[in-house]
Design brief:
Length: about 170
């Protein structure tokens, strides 16, 4: 028997909920970017920069975590990770959280109303990573800071004339 789980239905409900939050919502946000471009609520260059912020945040988080040997919760507490795959790298910072917060921050800078929706996605993904037993709260906080910082840096290179044309 797996420690912490007393029956199959408990495993199923926890796995389905946390996998959905930790993984699928992540991809729903990216599909949301495509939808916003198609419906012309987001300009193509804004979508490209948002995705760039997300990918760069992911890469930087992976580099940082390779330098900081922080174990994951499932490695220290004996409970299994509730994800589709078992992560093999270190925990700090969360690359998923960095990527989704990079995306959300850049969308928020381009359009405040839409950005709030993407921040809701980011919080759901972050909580899902904690509930899934693959990250501690400090890991997702670190990932969020990485993502927001990278989005702000990328935004700092956007010309002022382009920023004035944004929806607030």
């Amino acid at each position: 028997m797996i420690k912490g789980f007393n029956n199959f239905s408990t495993i199923n409900s926890k796995v389905i909920g946390s996998v959905f939050a930790a993984s699928f919502v992540f991809w729903v946000a990216y599909l949301g970017i495509l939808f916003l471009v198609v419906t012309r609520k987001l300009k193509v260059f804004q979508a490209i920069l948002a995705i760039t912020a997300s990918v760069l945040s992911w890469v930087i988080a992976l580099f940082v975590k390779s330098q900081i040997p922080q174990p994951r919760p499932f490695q220290t507490n004996g409970y299994p990770p509730l994800t589709l795959t078992v992560p093999g790298d270190f925990a700090f910072p969360s690359a998923h959280t960095a990527a989704i917060f990079g995306l959300a921050t850049f969308i928020w800078l381009a359009n405040r109303k839409l950005g709030i929706i993407f921040f809701v996605f980011a919080v759901i993904v972050s909580l899902g990573r904690i509930i899934s037993n693959v990250h501690f709260p400090v890991d997702v906080a670190g990932g969020a800071l990485v993502g927001m910082f990278i989005a702000l840096v990328i935004d700092s290179f956007v010309p002022k004339g382009v920023k004035k044309a944004r929806k607030r």
